[in-house]
Amino acid sequence: MSNSTDESATTQQLGDWVESLLAQVEKRFDEQNQQVVKRMNEMADRIDALESSILELVHGSEAKPAPAA
């Protein structure tokens, strides 16, 4: 019977270890996901700012008359 008890304890330890490992992987995945979303939002803001700057340059150059030669 001791062998059965040892196997049961080992199985329980393995199960606990796997659950712990999966929890760690899930936590790291969530952290990485949050970082990616944050960086994507920052990049979207930078693209919006760049687009605004380009539009200002385009519209600004349209409003100015061409210099006389």
UniProtKB/TrEMBL annotation:
<dbReference type="InterPro" id="IPR009643">
    <property type="entry name" value="HS1-bd"/>
</dbReference>
<comment type="similarity">
    <text>Belongs to the HSBP1 family.</text>
</comment>
<dbReference type="GO" id="GO:0005829">
    <property type="term" value="C:cytosol"/>
</dbReference>
<dbReference type="GO" id="GO:0005634">
    <property type="term" value="C:nucleus"/>
</dbReference>
<dbReference type="Pfam" id="PF06825">
    <property type="entry name" value="HSBP1"/>
</dbReference>
<protein>
    <recommendedName>
        <fullName>Heat shock factor binding protein 1</fullName>
    </recommendedName>
</protein>
<dbReference type="GO" id="GO:0003714">
    <property type="term" value="F:transcription corepressor activity"/>
</dbReference>
<dbReference type="GO" id="GO:0070370">
    <property type="term" value="P:cellular heat acclimation"/>
</dbReference>
